[in-house]
Each structure stands twice: as C-alpha cells, then as structure tokens.
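INTERNAL AUDIT FORM
Audit reference: QA-55
Scope: verify that the stored structure record matches its stored sequence.
Auditor: D.O.
Record contents follow.
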Amino acid sequence: MTTTYVNWGEAKVKLTWKPNDEYPQQNLITSVHGICFYKNMLLLVNLNHRGWDFPGGHIETNETPVECFKREVMEEGYVEGECLFLGYIVVDHNENPNWNEDSPYPKVGYQLFYRMDVEKVHSFVGEFEASERLFIDPIEICDYYHDWHELYQEILDYASTIE
C-alpha cells in the first residue's frame, strides 16, 4: 500500500493504493481504469487535453465497473480482452480546503483498477476522447506519462506480476 499527495488543479488530494479483491461501496466509485498488456507491451492512449494515460473513465447508469472498463478500453484504445480486478485508489479530499458539498466527487471516493490481457486489437479510429494509441515497453512509461509517480508505479508493478 502506497500513499502520496498530488495537486489536481488547485486541490491537494491524498491518494492511497489498495490492492484488494473486493470492490468498495458502489456509489463512491468515481472512475474505472486499467493496465492493458498486449504481447508484454503496455497500452497507452493519448487523451484529448490530458496526454498519454491509461484507458478508463466514469461508470454509466446501469453499468458495472468491469463493463465500464471494457467499454472505455474499446472506446479509447480499440482493444478487447480478459479482465482481472487489481484494487483501487482511495481519493481522499479531507485535506483539500477547496472541496465542498457541491463537489461532483465524494469527499472520499475510489478509482478502480483492472488488468486486461488484450486478445483482440481493432483498427484505431479515434472517434471518442483518444487521438491515438500506442504499445510501449513498460519501462518506458516515464517517457510518456507526464504525471507519473510512485503510486502508479506500484499499480503497474502489481499488474505486471498477476496473470
């Protein structure tokens, strides 16, 4: 378990990685993301206005977290595969003086993470929020991901050891 602080806009947010085999409370899940491997290469998507990142996004009405992840991976990376739940990041705004009851996110929420072993790679079309995709050697991640930190490294390391 790793804890770090990040600045999201003007907000200081505490993030804690918790590898786990249980989902947190459904209504507090703010997003779903994943580490996708294809032939030992890591999938990154170039998200409009954010840069290179893991695929992921927000759960839609009547969608399970794993359905959300599979949809987001298809929309952003145009790949399909088998998924395994890895754990979650606790997103804690308790020390964020900018957080208030009108925030779109809970004071303490969760970002779920999955591992996908890519089985099918479709032609990249770029119809949604990603302008391109790329498969890289995981050791090159810092060359692409602009806000890479030890929490994400722990998730990547954990995902790399599980099959």
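Auditor finding: record pair retrieved intact. The longest strand covers residues 79-92.
Action required: none
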